[in-house]
Write a structure and sequence with these properties.
Layout (H helix, E strand, L loop, with lengths): L3 H12 L8 H8 L8 H13 L3 E5 L2 E2 L10 E4 L20
Antiparallel strand pairs: 1-2, 1-3
Helix pairs in contact: 1-2
Length: 98
């Protein structure tokens, strides 16, 4: 079962070309056009849940990041073949800051 925010994320991702990503701000603006800033934290929380479920990938610098540890500006994309399913064996900075 998905939330209205998760439905909006998945709907917007379904509308873009395969491999393309969306900005979480566009999701927030679709939900609350006038006061979208209030919704951004909820978009992030819902995106993390979808990433945990393996439905989407959270990107930093156009690379998949661990949904449990990323910080800063991010984008969302549908999961593709070859995307990591686990981040335990990925070396480097988990925050996505290179």
């Amino acid at each position: 079962m998905t939330t209205p925010i998760q439905d909006t994320i998945l709907s917007q991702l379904a509308a873009v070309a395969a491999g393309k990503s969306i900005d979480p701000m566009s999701v927030a603006k679709a939900i609350e056009p006038e006061r979208w800033q209030r919704v951004l934290g909820h978009v992030r929380t819902n995106a993390i849940e979808l990433a945990r479920e393996g439905k989407i990938v959270i990107l930093r610098h156009n690379k998949p990041v661990n949904p449990e540890k990323f910080r800063g500006v991010y984008r969302l994309r549908l999961r593709q073949e070859g995307d990591p399913t686990s981040f335990e064996d990925v070396a480097g900075d988990e925050s996505g800051e290179a």
